[in-house]
Amino acid sequence: MAPPFVFPQILRALEEDPEDNHRLFAQNPVDVTSLRPSDLEEFVKGVSFDLSDRELFCIEDQDVFDRVYSLVRDFYTLPPSCKCNLVESLRSNLSVLLPNVDSISRSVQDQEDEVPIIDRITSHRNALKIYTFFLITIIMTEEAHVSSVESTKVAARGRKKQVVQSWNWEPQRGRMLNLIANSLEINLSLLFGSSELDENYLSFIVKNSFSLFENAAILKDPEAKDALCRIIGASATKYRYIVQSCASVMHLIHKYDFAVVHVADAVARAESKYSDGTLAVTIIRDIGRTDPKAYVKDTVGADNVGRFLVELADRLPKVMSTNVGVLVPHFGGESYKIRNALVGVLGKLVAKAFNDAEGDVSSKSLRLRTKQAMLEILLERCRDVSAYTRSRVLQVWAELCEEHSVSIGLWNEVASISAGRLEDKSAIVRKSALNLLITMLQHNPFGPQLRIASFEATLEQYKKKLNELEPNRPTEDSSKEPTSDGDSCIGDDSLPDSCQPKNGEEITEKDVSVPDIGNIEQTKALIASLEAGLSFSKCMSASMPIFVQLMASSSASDVENAILLLMRCKQFQIDGAEACLRKILPLAFSQDKSIYEAVENAFVSIYIKKNPVETARQLLNLAIDSNIGDQAALEFIVNALVSKGEISSSTTSALWDFFCFNINGTTAEQSRGALSILCMAAKSSSRILGSHIQDIIDIGFGRWAKVEPLLARTACTAIQRLSEEDRKKLLLSSGSRLFGILESLITGNWLPENIYYTTADKAISAIYMIHPTPETLAATIIKKSLSTVFDVVGQDQPQDDTDDSIVDFLTTVQVAKLSRFLFVVSHIAMNQLVYIESCTQKIRRQKTKTDKAAAESQNTEENLGATQENNSINAELGLAASDDALLDTLAERAEREIVSGGSGEKNLIGDCATFLSKLCRNFSVLQKHPELQASAMLALCRCMIIDASFCESNLQLLFTVVENAPSEVVRSNCTLSLGDLAVRFPNLLEPWTENMYARLRDTSVSVRKNAVLVLSHLILNDMMKVKGHINEMAICIEDDVERISSLAKLFFHELSKKGSNPIYNLLPDILGQLSNRNLKRESFCNVMQFLIGSIKKDKQMEALVEKLCNRFSGVTDTKQWEYISYSLSLLTFTEKGIKKLIESFKSYEHALAEDLVTENFRSIINKGKKFAKPELKACIEEFEEKLNKFHLEKKEQEETARNAQVHVEKTKNMESLVVPSKVKEEPVEEYDEGEGASDSEIVDPAMEEAGDSLKASDSEEEPAMEEAGDNSEQSGTTSPHSLNQNTSGGEESESESSNVKRGNRTETSSKLRRSLRSVLVTALVFI
């Protein structure tokens, strides 16, 4: 019998001679690499013949074993045919060997002699090991060779010559692995003597199987992957190779992300095949025991582990549900990836793990409580600190809604949380919240229509029905649990069709009968369902303002998903959805292509129907209800759709039918809306209007225009949109009639005041568009308008220049007519300017075309040289330039004559402009007529735009009005005009820049809004330099009005995109100016946070660190120190930025005494520690110590200085007490010197003696007093010397004058000295 085969550590270890000679080894291996190809082929055939012709156990024979070993050792060098022969021989022998195990077990029962059976078992075991070893070794060898070839291909990519795989290895690999998997699945306990296999045998198979799992190419082969999963499952589950398999699985999960799904498959298959989840449970518990901090460092491993848990929960929900408790503590870990995974696991478990209806009441109750606990965790995780986790939770809730795993009782809570997350600071969370709401609408259990009124009406009816049923409720029902059936019905995901109310039909009548759905409990359940549906509908309706706000978001995903959600809301008829959808129209101007496409798709799906008449009706209703901004966006979208063919010719025909009243029930307003849409479409296809020119004139200016005055304005717009060819036809056929209509439209009085101005605007523009000589007709219109205004003045009324006479005159003239006249004159002047410029451009184009044609005709071969010579001569003489200069001169002259009159002759508009200027200066009159002031100032601004000299002479007046006018309409209009003037005459407006910025501080909201718009336009289009007043715009970021704040933010957002971001250069100046303003700290912080957030480049951030640090040195105000340090803390610091901050320490060390300043620097340090490398971290820690040290020192210095100041103040207070005593001494000393006393004083001789004694005592006690004074100064108090003088000059002098005579002065002096000492001691103790 052959010695046993022992699995070696490496293949070549089989060549080593064992010491005990009790194992099979290769004694005489052959070097097959030295054989010639023919000899090698004969060698392989001999081996294959022996393996196939002899017994299965011939592999134990030393000769066969040596030869097979030799071929396996150098397998990669064999030619493909030899490889195939060897593999087939080994595989076929093993496949035949495996069924013999069953025959051995049967032989054991029939055989009486056990010796032959034991030998057969040993031989089978030995052969099984050898065949398994050689096959696995071949697989590993070939895979290593294939990997090296693939790497060579990658390195030599681009070369034409590549290594060709000349034999089909993948099918062979799959069959070999399946055979090994089959060998593990049969009953091997008889071969190995017990259910536990040979450790070496099993470890060799498992180790190499997991090694193959590390190859992504093998896992793509379904056959090979299936075999490997079977091997792992059998080894771990059947043969209890758990610990090693679990360790290998964890290694695979942590290191190879592509293997995660396949490992989960292997674990799940093991559980399903053997009905044993030990491997899965062991892995789950191993993950649960891992320290959560480990996943913070290993982010890739955490991601893979999380994916594995989710995949495992999807495949084995019941196993995971019983062991999920060990994973729940990881919710408290710092790794958001693990928390994301656990959220996904809970979602899978809620959807799949609790659907089993079997079991007793207690098990069902336990499952229900477990599910409820998981749902509560999911609700709690919606407020997770990580945005990724919050987003993932919302995605899980969306999946649960799709799976119908959210009960009606929980539906509104989820909807409320999702609506709250719409205002999350993270874009990914908002996106997930929007998607969740979309999903909830799609899968809502309440019905296809969610109108609030419908729910309320149905609910009211069923409540009445319940009230009718309740008195008839049987007594036996009252003894039962009243809420059990109801709760179970409410908890169901959906109600039966018979219980569903018809929400689509609005119930308007109170006595409408409702279907009888059964008993009281079912009625209660239905009412609860209706109440939940009503709450859901109200929640969605209440969220409409947030949806609108999201459409203005800077994130494209917010806008796109908000549009999708609003479309879904409209589909389910949520209240307010249609009105909100109209607000998507301005988004058509978005520069983001995805947003525009979303708007266009939404527009098509909502308004473009299959029925052309319905489409036309939708579009004209949209045009009727839209404001000016929406109409511009609508025109943009309609143009695009007409170009793409989305709006068909049949829809256009339906619009004409609406306009011409060919459809029954058409109103004048609908006719106007249809013409508006046709005008919009004509911008892309001008032929649309050509076929109905006569209808436009007849209907647009006919009797229907009196019913709907805006129809005339729309007709004027249609005339302007006519093509050149259609205009010529119109002039020939109905030109005079049309101009007469337009003239009467402008000079007539039948249009309402609120419509006249826009209609006259369009009419004048139409005249200048199609009339061959518009200035003649314009002059006629001005004269007629003038006559309608001033001919009504009675000739008998005296005219003088007083204000009263002007007021009487205006009353007679009628302010409304004068306002209209001023509008007509100014608008004609503006159109005349535009007409002159268009004529100039037309002449230039014609001249260029003529010159080009002449050049082409003269550029023959004969005349080419002469032509070039003439061109050069003309260029030298400047003839071509002189033509252009002449044209420019004529254009300037024509423009100047509009208002000023270049030739000194009177002109109509010029005289009106003079009158207009005088009228606008008469403030006392205009204050009594604010409507007239609005028209007059608007007309004045238009005249100023036309002529530079007129503008210069009236600029002072304009700024006076824009600052002091009581009407905010006047100030708002003037503010807008300033923008036009700045574009037209920038040099004239440049000195008034500060006054233009001052409009940002106006009390009126409309004025501030217009000021922001005007300045934004001028600055962003490089028409005005960003000067030192930009801080006024920055303050608008914190304006109380949200619209103004949004416009200011938009301005700075767009400004940051220009060049190298001007905000970077402006920020230090803005910071300094805002610090000096009386601005709330919160507002300042918000402004700086927004501005600094718009700076993205690291280099600019690093430069700002240095700039802001340098500002400390020139500032002494603590408030500015705090603001500068706060701005520094907002910067995004890099390694260079931190180093610059540390290097600039000298510039801000004096400010560290302030607590807020130090706190701001500490926040910078904390941010720096998060990304710092070890070297930088050490520098940061050293900087932190230095910062804290200086802070404490500065605080101590401040405290010392404060104490010193207190001491100085006390000293001054004590000195103020000394001043009166000295004043009292002065008369005594003057008297002693012989000076005369005041006539009003009566001097007692005794007082004179007391004064002498005082002088003597003072002179004797002076040294003692100086010493006492020094001591008192050291103790921080005032010297009591003056206090002693006061006492001796008061009390003692009085006692001496009454009791002591002049001869006892010496005794008195000693008493005085004793008294002075006692007073001194008392004063020192007191102080």
UniProtKB/TrEMBL annotation:
Listed Basic and acidic residues bias regions: 466-483, 1194-1213
GO process annotations (BP): cell division; meiotic chromosome condensation; mitotic chromosome condensation
Compositionally skewed regions (Polar residues) per UniProt: 1271-1287
Subcellular location as annotated: Chromosome; Nucleus
GO CC term (a single one): condensin complex
Region (Disordered) residue spans: 466-511, 1194-1314
Keywords: Cell cycle, Cell division, Chromosome, DNA condensation, Mitosis, Nucleus
Acidic residues: compositionally biased ranges: 1227-1251, 1259-1270
A GO molecular-function descriptor: histone binding
Pfam families (UniProt xref): Cnd1, Cnd1_N
Condensin complex subunit 1 N-terminal domain sequence ranges: 81-242
Domain Condensin complex subunit 1 C-terminal, first and last residues per copy: 969-1128
Main location: nucleus
Function summary: Regulatory subunit of the condensin complex, a complex required for conversion of interphase chromatin into mitotic-like condense chromosomes. The condensin complex probably introduces positive supercoils into relaxed DNA in the presence of type I topoisomerases and converts nicked DNA into positive knotted forms in the presence of type II topoisomerases.
Similarity comment: family membership: Belongs to the CND1 (condensin subunit 1) family.
This protein's name: Condensin-1 complex subunit CAP-D2
